Structures are given as C-alpha cells and as structure tokens.
Amino acid sequence: MSRQAESWHAALHRLQREGVPHALATQVTSAGSTPREPGARMVITADDVFDTLGGGTFEWQTIEAARSRLSAGEPGMSLEAFSLGGRSGQCCGGFVNVLLEVFPGSPVTLALFGAGHVGREIVRLAAPLGWRIVWHDSRDDAFPSWGEEIPRLECRRTTDPAAAVATLPPGSHALVMTHDHAEDRALVDALLRRDDTASLGLIGSRSKWASFRSRLIDAGHAEAALARVRCPIGDSGGDKRPYAIALATLAELLPLTADAERPDQRGLAPAVLRATFQRATPGT
C-alpha cells in the first residue's frame, strides 16, 4: 500500500476530474476513545491512500472494505461500524461509524477509433459529459495538441486493430470512423469477437455496411451479432459538416448510456441513518 502526501480533498478533486475509481471514507460518529474525530476523511484507490483516519487495524479494515467494493465495481454508499475493542482489536475501545462512498470512475467508456474531422468534433462535444474517452488512431501525429487539456482522454496510436480492441474495458461504447475502410472492417470484426461492448457504431453509408456485412458473415459472424452494429451513424438530416455529424452521433449514443449510473440511488436509507446516530448518541 502506498500512502501519499497529497491531502484527501486535493486527491478527491483530482481523481474525480480524471475519472479514476476511488472511495471517500468519512468518520461520521464516534463514542468513547477513538483515534480521530467525526469529520476526519481519507481517500482510497486500488493502489494509494491519501490522508488518515488515525491508523491501526480500524483504518486497515476501512481500506480493505473500500478496495473490495472498488474491485467489485460497486458504486454508492455504505456504512461501516467499528467497535475498536471488538472488531478492530484496538486498545482505545471506542465505537466509530465510517461512511464509505465509492466512485467507480467515469460511468461510461467511449472507445473512439479515428482522429479525423468527425472524431475530433465528437471528442470536443463529449468532453463535458464526464466519460472516459479512449481515442485510437494508426497514423503518426493524428491527435490534436488540444487533446492534452481534456480530462479523462487517452490518446493511443496503434496499428493492430485486434490488439487495440483487446485493451478496452468490458462494457465500452465503440465508435469506428478511421480513415481506412479495411481498418474499419478489421476493428468491427475484432469488436464483434469480444462480444462484450455496450454498443457499436460504424460511420459510413448503407452500401458500405452492406459490403462489410457480407464479409463479416464470411468471417463467421452470426446475424444476431451483426444486428448489434449501428450503421450509418450520425444522421444529421443531410448536413455533412463534421460538427453536425458528430452532434447527431452523440445524440444517438446518449440514450444508450443512460443506465450506466443512477445517482438517485446513491444515498443511504433513512432507517439506516437513524439507527446509526441513535447508537452513537449517549443515553439513547
């Protein structure tokens, strides 16, 4: 475990901006002798810890609980109760409740293949949405310099479509729009073979898709798999400007990402909170 000097609030701001999975642990109640006071916080990632709740077994157990939920991809809130003399085996013997808020990182990963005019406009338009964008292109110097200023954007140069697709996390939304039809077809073939993308869109005309479809059937893909491919994408009503096509493409994609995160279900049930604060208040 690596403990970093960065404060919990600085780490929280940075990790949320970058879309990195992390957990915020907040001591919300205490009774008796405890290492820290209510309001103490720490931030936990898969590899690092920022700030402290006082150390000892109780803190280690908090870190383990956070990392267990991070590795399982379980977002939302939970309440961890620690009897320091019981569960944690610490001599101070107090009682602590820790609110654990798990942020799984960016709720959507957009895998964008192609850094041409439409691809660039898609990146600009998607930047405020909080998605992780993994941008691929096989050409040298294809990516614009302004890409370095966009949070959660990863630019990857790759000449091997299958290898590029293999690096994507499960549940990615893929858009294929490279400068080369053969590369597009190889990417669609590799994405269909993975069979775990959340959605798959291909730029181009209906005649392009008819040609691709025939070759993909010859490559062994079933009709059910081919039905998952959306082509053409970006129906802008005849407006062929890159911005218009990008805008239409994102409008088609947004409903497909709507269930990736449900912020309305993140809170703790009122009964859980009432029981917690009753236990922590002397004389109740």
UniProtKB/TrEMBL annotation:
Residues 110-253 form the XdhC Rossmann domain. Residues 16-76 form the XdhC- CoxI domain. NCBIfam families: xanthine_xdhC (TIGR02964). This is Xanthine dehydrogenase accessory factor. It comes from Halomonas shengliensis.
